[in-house]
Amino acid sequence: MKPFTLSLSRLSEDWQATLIGLAIAAAIGLGLIGPGPQTLTLKAANGATVEMSAPAASGWKTSATLDGDRVDVAGAVSALAASSVYTFACRDGAVTLETAAADDGQPRLTLANACAGEVVLTLKRDSAIPWPLFGWFAR
Amino acid sequence: MTITQTKKLDSASASSSAAQASRLGLIAGFALLLALTVLVAELDRLIADAFKAQGVARNPLEYPLTAVLIGLAANGLLRLARIYGRVRPAFRTEFFLKIGLVLLGVRVSLGDLLATGVAGLVQALVLVTSVFFFTWWLAGRLRLPATLKAVMAAAVSICGVSAAIAAAGAVMAKKEEVTYITALVILTAIPLMVLMPVLADAMGLSPQVAGAWFGGNIDTTAAVVGAGTMHSQQAQEVAAVVKMAQNVLIGFVAFALALYFAVVVEGGKGQRPRPAAIWQRFPKFVIGFVIVSALATLGAFTPGIAKEIERAGQWAFALAFVCIGVEFAPGAIRAMGWKPVAVYVGATVFNTALALLAASVIFGALGGG
């Protein structure tokens, strides 16, 4: 039996363009080009403290909910640096961030919940590496 | 070694060097194209900054026009240097445009696609039928050859170069006729791309109606996207979708033309087309556009990622706009005389007026004003 092979050059221009377009969308969408979209979520019940490591990068947007209701995060930063610990503390229905230095390593996120309810902290970073090349046409 | 064997070896070696030269030409051409596009981007920024310094917030010389002009300049220089033929394979307007259109799907939700696409299809049916038969009639009055008549009618009524190629295949037109129509398509598309957004603004058309007008009138899809870009983001989206609705009719028209030539022109002696030819001519990039649009609608891309996909598409469009200028072949027009030019211009004027009416009625009724 003849093995199935797919050669891009044998396809019509229409199919070539379609596949290349889809490949570009997939590569950017899946983060194969640049780190892609990232979401970090920390969930802590009343009285609990949870932690996790995060990639050192900029462009983070932080949001939090207390029992499903959105609450402000005071002092939120958009850049997470290496050798740093970011402590998000929930007290009296509000979340505040304190940053401290640590030993070498990835940034550490800590969520300490002293509020009466479950706190969900989300950090989102939806932009891949900023591409100056693409930005040339951005007005 | 016999003489025959030596000849065979020589011939194999010659075809291998020709293939290598063609590959090198393709690579060099693509590198040149990229460099020209980077130049366009840089010029676009400088021009925008210059206008801003004069208190003009929006750059009136949008990048599609800069790209076409840079392409035309490169075209002239490459021909003067006699290297145009070598790098020519890299200049593929339609190819880059189709990649850009697939990526444009990220900006158009399925709901909008359905609304604009259905209205675009209605408009396309009205325009393609009317403009095709008008061009056919006018070309008949000036006694143009049947094959040129068919290629020209398809090009003016559907989507320029792609339709001309599809129709030429269906009616066995001469290669020179396709080259000629391609040159005419570009020659009329460039001024229309620049003038129509200005006229749309002067007439106070909404972005929807303006986009539908560009999509229904300008022959080549690249210039349609260019005109939309120069007008507004919404006009670009509508223009692209309307043009794609028109593009999907290529297969049907090519099939009908092939059948007409086999039965009527060749008196039943010609080969009748198979219905599969309709699918063969179907613009497959529309499928890619719908897939990306569906993914975007389902929330597969975050706003930042969607923006980056959109910018990648913008690069593909910029490459296509530069190619429009580089691919223009003015020599082909001189060879054919004034009659086909008169038919083409007459058909374009008819198309412009009818497309404005159709866009105002159909897209105005959708709430586009």
Considering the chains and any ligands shown, give keywords for the structure:
heterodimer; A: 139 residues; five-stranded mixed beta sheet; B: 369 residues; mainly alpha; globular
Task: Produce the secondary structure layout.
The complex is a heterodimer of chains A (139) and B (369).
Chain A lengths: L12 H17 L8 E7 L4 E5 L7 E6 L2 E3 L1 E2 L9 E8 L2 E8 L6 E6 L5 E7 L6 H4 L4
Parallel strand pairs in A: 5-7, 6-8
Antiparallel strand pairs in A: 1-9, 2-8, 3-4, 3-9, 6-7
Chain B lengths: L2 H51 L9 H18 L3 H4 L5 H12 L5 H32 L4 H14 L1 H11 L3 H28 L4 H11 L3 H11 L1 H15 L2 H16 L10 H6 L3 H13 L5 H25 L3 H6 L1 H31 L1
Helix pairs in contact in B: 1-2, 1-15, 2-15, 4-14, 4-15, 5-6, 5-11, 5-17, 6-7, 6-8, 6-12, 6-17, 7-8, 7-12, 8-10, 9-10, 9-11, 9-17, 10-11, 10-15
Account of the protein in words:
The complex is a heterodimer of chains A (139) and B (369). Chain A has 139 residues and is α+β, with helices and mostly antiparallel strands. Helices cover 15% and strands 37% of the residues of chain A. Chain B has one domain (61-82, 90-365). In chain B, 82% of the residues lie in helices and 0% in strands. Chain B is built from 17 helices and no strands. Chain B has helices spanning 3-53, 63-80, 84-87, 93-104, 110-141, 146-159, 161-171, 175-202, 207-217, 221-231, 233-247, 250-265, 276-281, 285-297, 303-327, 331-336, 338-368. Chain A binds chain B through residues 12-22, 24-25, 28-29, 34, 36-37, 59, 124, 126-128, 131, 133-139, and chain B through 38, 41-42, 44-45, 48, 59, 63, 92, 94-103, 105-106, 283-285, 287-288, 291-292, 295, 300-305, 307-309, 311-316, 318.
